[in-house]
Design goal:
about 160 residues; 4 strands; flat; four-stranded antiparallel β-sheet
Length: about 160
């Protein structure tokens, strides 16, 4: 599932069991049905029905694996080309619905954008990107700046070490 999928059901009202399920799945997306049910103190069938309901409502968007690229690099077993992680603060020129929609659409379509969040506090968006190199990152930013995305200014943070 992706963030842009269409919801099949309306968002359900969440109770304590649902919130526990979400917390556990966020920590361990590969937990077994029986272990999940045991951890939230429900039988397997009702627990799994809740998970399916959360998926169908779009609350659970999908499951993913976190890959330790550094370890693969160290052992010479890179599955893909090395990626350069970069965080970027984005400030838009205009703060209207059309500007936000245009920018967000472009971010959903950019393969390099791993995560994009809208934030408060004087910054419009924080992006987590992975590119082939710093040069590739800068070329991407240059394309965005000459496009009609409405970026006023940006601040780049190069990741030097992953702590957690």
């Amino acid at each position: 599932m992706s963030a842009s999928h269409i919801r099949v059901l309306p968002a359900p009202k969440l109770d304590a069991f649902d919130l526990k399920i979400l917390t556990i799945l966020e920590r361990d997306g590969r937990i077994t049905k029986s272990r999940l049910a045991e951890e939230i103190n429900l039988s397997v069938s009702p627990c799994w029905e809740r998970v399916k309901r959360l998926e169908q409502a779009g609350i659970i968007e999908g499951y993913a694996a976190r890959i330790n690229q550094s370890l693969l690099e160290e052992t010479g077993q890179l599955a893909t080309a090395p990626r350069t992680p970069v965080w970027v603060e984005i400030h838009l020129k205009h703060h209207d619905a059309a500007s936000f929609q245009r920018f967000e659409k472009a971010m959903r379509e950019a393969d390099e954008v791993i995560e994009c969040v809208a934030v408060g506090g004087g910054v419009d968006y924080l992006l987590r990107l992975e590119t082939a190199s710093i040069d590739a990152y800068q070329r991407l930013i240059d394309r965005w700046l000459i496009s009609e995305l409405g970026i006023d200014r940006y601040f780049t943070y190069i990741v030097t070490k992953q702590v957690k």
